[in-house]
Amino acid sequence: MSFSRIQLRIGLTCFVLGLLLSASAVAQEVVAGSDSLELTMEPAKARGAARDSWLGKDKFQHFFASAFLTGVGYFVAREPFERSQETSTYLGGGFAIGIGAGKEIYDLKSPEGHASVKDFVADLLGAGVTILMISLF
Q1: What integer pLDDT is reported at residue 51 of this predicted model?
Q2: CA-CA-CA-CA torsion for 118, 123, 126, 130, nearest 10 degrees?
Q3: Residue 32: its pLDDT value, please?
Q4: Segment among 22-36, 56-70, 105-119 with least mean pLDDT
Q5: What is the pLDDT of residue 48?
């Protein structure tokens, strides 16, 4: 299995964006004055819907997770299953959007979760940007 230059560029771009997201999350914790940089699993309902900002850290996580899943879905459909670029793009986007929708449905039904339209919009944007990148190359 060989990788084309385009696939390597897309992979490297996703990797760099992931690193930037991680650095951003750490920087937000430091600026907020947190004594420790440990992650908390505080339920979204406990945080309150008022903290569901369009530019919140979780929106970036939704965006990049969806972008990553779109890329993975594309790559799996394209390489091992030898689908066309168009079919692979649709499969990758559908894979990511399906997982994002499933997560929001789970949050809607779960007592610990908080379904958010903003989270799903971030999922759609992540998949859409990745689809656009794949289509341009």
Answers
A1: 67
A2: -150
A3: 56
A4: 22-36
A5: 53
Contact between 50 and 96 under an 8 Å Cβ cutoff? The reply is no
Q: What residues contact residue 71 under an 8 Å CB cut-off, 6+ apart?
A: 10, 11, 14, 92, 130, 134
Q: How far is CA 105 from CA 1, 46, 115, in A?
A: 37, 18, 7
Written as one string, the DSSP assignment of 10-59 is: HHHHHHHHHHHHHHHHHHHHHHTT-S--------HHHH-GGG--TTSHHH
Question: What is the rounded distance in angstroms from the CA atom of residue 136 to the CA atom of residue 16?
Answer: 19
Is the whole-model pTM more than 0.85? Answer: no
